[in-house]
Amino acid sequence: EVQLMESGGGSVQAGGSLRLSCAASGFFGANDYSIVWFRQAPGKEREGVSCTGTGDGSIYYMTSEEGRFTISTDRAKETVYLQMNSLQPEDTAMYYCAAAFYRGHCSGALAAGDGAMDYWGKGTLVTVSS
Is 19 helix (H, G, I), strand (E, B) or coil? Predict the structure, then answer.
């Protein structure tokens, strides 16, 4: 059985950092998946943040996050991390990890959007105060 579970959210002041974890049980086996971090701010649509491929190790960031966020994977722990630095109030959102059965560079899955995801975690809340 596959499962996604996020953790690591919390409240920080602007300029602070958080590391989110996505325990992605069952996603590092024979099949290739794209693991995608999404976020949804209050009153806004869910948007993709970053992704990584379990098969090819591909990595991609949405432009606004590149340089501040870093996605990484610990295959032994079946966990995908999102290190977030220089956080700003506009980063306040519920952060979700999702997975799509997808071969190839993960940017394709991210571009396809949340409707293309096959599995979702329940999310972890990040609140950034000014």
Answer: strand
